[in-house]
Design goal:
7-stranded mixed beta sheet; Rossmann fold; 5 helices; 24% helix; globular; 3-stranded mixed beta sheet; binds glutamine; alpha/beta
Length: 188
């Protein structure tokens, strides 16, 4: 099994540390040449979605990666990664991969004081630690979207087909169960 980790900007190293701990091979995706390999799943890390979206286009990664995801490749997307997958971004005319029928609100907890840590139930797993950093949340979820977790009535984790999208950063906590669930999808 091999996982591709989008590594053009943001918190990709933290996901790499999780996969190292789980002894799962991965490769960073930084340029078109990296797409020649076969991957069983892909991780879209946190960071700045506008920067990531721009770089994905400039580096010509956008169209091929969108095709992978649309064709069913398992994806684990955290924070900015979730914004890349959303069909609608509040206040913006355009979206990025737009492969999950959700609407997201960027910096939904405020720009400055928007970072916090909590614990909450995640469907199919139980209580997990959740670290939010200038996080988005989901304001609308369409047909077929399974809601995995909500905090104060805001949706913070969903699954849609083979795509798992999270407002928070499981890679920053020592609970690997969400990554393990994603890796199970990648094995199938
Ligand atoms: N605020 C960032 C954005 O809107 C996301 C923050 C994160 O990924 N930690 O893209």
């Amino acid at each position: 099994m091999k996982i591709g980790i989008l590594a053009v900007q943001g918190a990709f190293a933290e996901h790499e540390a999780v996969l190292d701990a789980l002894h799962i091979p991965y490769k960073e995706i930084r340029c078109m040449r990296d797409l020649q390999q076969t991957f069983d799943g892909v991780i879209l890390p946190g960071g700045e979605s506008t920067v990531q979206g721009k770089l994905l286009h400039e580096l010509h990664l956008f169209a091929p990666m969108r095709q992978w995801i649309a064709d069913g490749m398992p994806v684990l997307a955290t924070c900015a990664g979730m914004i890349l997958l959303a069909q609608t971004i509040e206040g913006q005319d355009t979206a990025y991969f737009a492969t999950i029928p959700i609407t997201v609100r960027r910096n939904a907890y405020g720009r400055q004081l928007g970072s916090f840590h909590t614990e909450s139930e995640c469907r199919g797993i139980g209580k997990i630690p959740m670290t939010f950093i200038r996080a988005p949340y989901i304001t609308q979820a369409g047909d077929g979207v399974s809601i995995l977790s909500t905090i104060e009535e805001h949706i913070v984790a969903v699954r849609y087909q083979n795509q798992i999208a999270l407002s928070f950063h499981p890679e920053l906590d020592c609970d690997y169960r969400l990554h393990q669930g994603f890796l199970e999808l990648c094995k199938q």
